[in-house]
Design goal:
The chain is mainly α. It has one domain. Helices cover 72% and strands 0% of the residues.
Length: 397
């Protein structure tokens, strides 16, 4: 058994990839083979969800209605035109709108097709990266056990792009390129602000290992991206922290983003704000319970704790991110958005229990169908029975 303190201070390259530590095309081929099953699984489920959208309002119409896509499309249009008069309150981060504006410009498509394209490519990349970073089994369960992975990947939203950038940053960090890892993590922060916890995890890990040059490179790289992001906000709105102040005014009741443990979750449970129906309420509570159980089990066992901190930057990120989720001060959102917030740390928690994950393909298939039903239900109100009838109609016209 490895001593956790030895793991935390280790400067040796990560040997857990085995065959993936190969130069040139041999390494790329091994990574591709490892990622392919998870990518194909994700692509199949995404295609099913898109086909089922034909039974509802239509695919692009579902994209336009999902989450905050209309707001992101408005911001992307303002970025392309240079006219920001229609944006009264700056709440949502602009990382996704920048990507949408660039994609629209290059491909000559509208904002909603660009959002859909970015989201689908992002979840395919996330599934493949999860397989390369951990294992095929972990990636498969990651894809099918959290319906928001499909919901925001197929019908758009910032979570899919954030997740792809975050996992790519973790991959770069494993390769030892800390400056580039911080740059990618900072880019993820411009999409969803919790990416800053990855930057903090990198800094704490490198300082603990006394790798001061790498810590400096990571600090400079991450800071450069964040400063460049804040400059347009200052130019157009006179406030480089406009996003933070927007969240503070609307989501945090003019307070701070954290409160006492589970305070925001309990308040959201009582009010049922932004939670539709008892089934969805039960699902969200189940994700909270699963998160707490998996994390407690990981930290409570020496063997699991050693595995969690085998890559110390990832273990540190899981702890920091989980603590924020438990302390999040959003009485109307802390529980309702819990499953999508959990996406960022869920594969790392699953990896801790990798040996206990069932190898049953039947179970994976059953969970995949449940994920599709939840995705369709939350995206365009399609119930499970109608989804089954729709599948039968599509494949047996």
């Amino acid at each position: 058994m490895e001593n956790p303190s030895i793991v935390l201070n280790s400067r040796l390259p990560d040997q857990s990839w085995g065959r993936l530590h190969r130069p040139g095309w041999r390494w790329a081929r091994a990574a591709f083979v490892r990622a392919l099953p998870a990518v194909l699984l994700t692509a199949t489920l995404a295609a099913v969800c898109a086909l089922l959208a034909c039974l509802g309002p239509g695919y692009l119409e579902s994209v336009s209605r999902n989450a905050d896509n209309s707001a992101y499309a408005l911001i992307a249009g303002a970025i392309r035109s240079g006219h920001f008069e229609e944006i009264e309150t700056v709440i949502r981060f602009w990382g996704l709108p920048y990507a949408v504006a660039l994609t629209s410009l290059i491909l000559h498509v509208g904002a909603y097709p660009a959002i859909a394209l970015i989201s689908v490519v992002s979840i395919l990349a996330s599934a493949g990266l999860a397989a390369v970073l951990w294992s095929r089994r972990v990636a498969a369960y990651f894809v099918v056990t959290n319906y928001t992975f499909l919901q925001f990947g197929v019908f758009g939203g910032a979570e899919s792009l954030f997740l792809a950038l975050l996992l790519f940053s973790l991959w770069v960090a494993r390769r030892g390129h800390w400056g580039w890892a911080a740059i990618v993590a900072a880019a993820a922060t411009t999409v969803r602000p919790l990416g800053c916890l990855a930057l903090l995890a990198y800094g704490v890990t490198l300082l603990h290992q006394r790798r001061y040059k790498s810590a400096l490179a990571a600090t400079l790289g991450g800071s450069a991206v964040l400063i460049l992001y804040c400059v347009p906000l200052y130019i157009h709105f006179g406030d480089p922290l406009a996003n933070f102040h927007g969240y503070q005014a609307t989501n945090w009741n003019h307070g701070w983003p954290i409160t006492f443990p589970f305070g925001g979750i309990i308040a959201n449970f009582r009010t049922r704000a932004n939670i539709h129906g008892p089934i969805m309420l039960g699902a969200k509570v189940a994700y909270v319970a699963a998160h707490v159980t998996l994390l407690a089990g990981a930290l409570g066992s020496r063997e699991r704790r050693t595995r969690l901190f085998l890559r110390p930057q990832e273990g540190m990120f899981v702890c920091l991110y989980s603590a924020f989720m438990f302390l999040y001060n959003a009485p109307e959102w802390a529980l309702s958005i819990y499953p999508r917030l959990l996406l960022a740390v869920f594969p790392m928690l699953l990896d801790v229990y990798r040996v206990r994950l069932p190898r049953s393909r039947v179970l994976v298939a059953a969970l995949a169908f449940l994920a599709v039903f939840f995705t369709c239900g939350t995206s365009f109100g399609l119930g499970p029975l109608l989804a089954i009838l729709g599948l039968a109609k599509l494949f047996h016209p």
